[in-house]
Amino acid sequence: MPNADFPPVQQAGSNAALEARRQAITPRGVGVGQSFYAARAKNAELWDIEGNRYIDFAGGIGVLNVGHANPRVVEAVKAQAEKFTHTCYQVVPYAGYVELAEEMAKRAPGDFAKKTLFVTTGAEAVENAVKIARAATGRGGIIAFDAAFHGRTAMTMALTGKVAPYKLNFGAAVPDVFHAPFPNPVHGVSVEDALKGIERLFKCDIDPKRVAAFIFEPVQGEGGFYQAPAEFVAGLRKIADEHGILLIADEVQAGAARTGKLFASEYYDTQFDIWTFAKSIGGGMPIAGVVGRAEVMDAPAPGGLGGTYAGNPLSVAAALEVLKIIDEEKLCARANELGERLKARVNGLKAKVPTIADVRGPGSMVAIEFFKDGKPSPETAKAVQAYALKHKLVLLTCGAYYNVIRFLYPLTIQDAVFNEALDILEAGLLQA
């Protein structure tokens, strides 16, 4: 069902020709999921250089909660570009940075004073959260969790709880990083198991008095869209308080209304100390950040935080507009509505598709996990993904076993396009 208001425009060349050029000139380490090349996009639809239309349920890996080329974001960026595009906030500051910092501090859960730092990428946000925690506690140790994804830089690669492909052939990891089990009932890891795993770390690997912070995703992203149970989060907070450890919520993928809340950590009564955010908060523009308790955020000395492009004025303008869109278009409620529709459609197929082991996720952070003969089935996930792509629906897989399909469609997607995509998905599930 093509968008009549946005007809495809073909460009010179072909997908095959560009793919050959890419393979000749860019390193294989930058893995590319598709062999077609984008020409234009709007909301949940994109067109390649040959004029083919696709429905995008990947969203640039969770970056496009307000859709491709959202006209309000485009206008905000244009207006800022006409004023200035860069000064480096640390050299000449600007009001937008301060306004956005106030907004993020106000919206992060917890009734206490907070401060906000902006950087450019999610990995930078995580690195800075670790730096801040270490400065605030005077300790070096960090505990992350199995199957977590926190980034590809040296520090965030060490925090990431998945070897292939993120840690292959890159040598020794950054020291003082440890991993504990993440609760995962689908794979037989209970909350009790996870909390006991932390106690085991304290007995076998690191003195808790050397631990600066726990870092975890309220809903794991690359790990498979598993939501941390409330009792686990409460237990983590109890252990943290007992030993003077900070609690960091990595909301890079789960934030910006994806889960039906602006911050996924709003689902818990537990208080956090630091949050990281990125991806959809910029509406496609590169921006990330750290928000946390004011006294914790003030621990690093002046000059210890920042970056040349950190809090770029164009990205700040985009993020301010994204927050308005989330509020005014009620995207948290929309996330819940769309997610329930998706889960209902897939759950209705379980009797016909026995490989569906689990359908889960808060809001629109939804995933389907596949098992066959009692074991994770990446083959099934790959087959559904391939069928969808053949019928012009872009899907992403994830999970430690690559047996999970995750859904990251824009929350602004039109109902007709969403239903069209669900029809393709259903057909793919029935033939997998």
Structure description:
The protein is of the alpha/beta class. Helix content is 36%, strand content 17%. It is built from 13 helices and 16 strands. It has helices at 15-25, 59-62, 71-81, 95-107, 122-137, 154-159, 191-204, 230-243, 294-297, 313-328, 331-347, 378-390, 415-431; strands at 38-42, 45-48, 53-56, 114-119, 141-145, 177-180, 211-216, 246-250, 274-277, 288-293, 356-360, 366-372, 375-376, 393-394, 396-398, 404-407. The strands form 3 sheets. Strands 4-10-9-8-7-5-6 form a 7-stranded mixed beta sheet, sandwiched between helices. Strands 11, 12, 13, 15 and 16 form a 5-stranded antiparallel beta sheet that branches. Strands 1-2-3-14 form a 4-stranded mixed beta sheet. Strand 11 (356-360) and strand 12 form a beta hairpin. Helix 3 packs antiparallel against helix 10 and helix 12 packs across helix 13. It is globular and about 55 Å long.
Report the C-alpha radius of gyration, rounded. 21 Å
- Overall geometric form: globular
Helix content: 25-40%
Largest sheet report: 7 strands, mixed
Low-confidence stretches: none
In the sheet with the most strands, the strands line up as 4-10-9-8-7-5-6
